[in-house]
Design goal:
The chain is an alpha/beta fold. It has helices at residues 16-25, 74-88, 101-110, 120-131; strands at 2-5, 8-13, 31-41, 44-52, 61-69, 93-97, 115-118. It has a single domain, classed as Nucleotidyltransferase, domain 5.
Length: 132
């Protein structure tokens, strides 16, 4: 899926089988998803939506969707979450993310009845920056 939103190129990548497996697993249970803008690729950012797969004993982290986008805007992240809802029919999640305001705004707007949790690793990293 490729879309241009107000001059911001966005493309969403995901495997249909992974999304349908996720939808089956979490049909009647609230899922915990992890979302972060992980790195830059030249002029683009890559944000990943991940989950722990409970089917396996070690519950590995698996990718659901990736967003390649030019700017870190609320609108970009909303686009990914809207497609996530369309493809999985999941409308409520616990979302673990950093404290990036555009991500927080997108989660709270797209999943109004969901819980937003901030990543402990990011909070510790922020504290370290303050102490250095």
């Amino acid at each position: 899926m490729v879309q241009l939103t107000r001059g911001n190129f966005c493309t969403i990548v995901g495997l249909p089988t992974m999304l349908s497996d996720f939808a089956q697993l979490f049909r009647n249970v609230t899922a915990t998803v992890y979302y972060d803008t992980t790195f830059s690729m030249g002029d683009f950012c890559v944000s990943c939506l991940l989950y722990r797969n409970p089917v396996f004993e070690n519950k590995p982290v698996m990718p659901l969707l990736m967003l390649v986008h030019e700017r870190r805007t609320t609108e970009s992240h909303e686009l990914l979450f809207e497609w996530f809802i369309k493809l999985t029919k999941v409308s409520s999640v616990v979302c673990v993310a950093d404290r990036d305001q555009s991500i927080t705004n997108a989660v709270l707007k797209t999943f109004p009845s969901s819980t937003m949790v901030y990543s402990w690793n990011h909070i510790i990293g922020d504290v370290r920056v303050c102490w250095d």
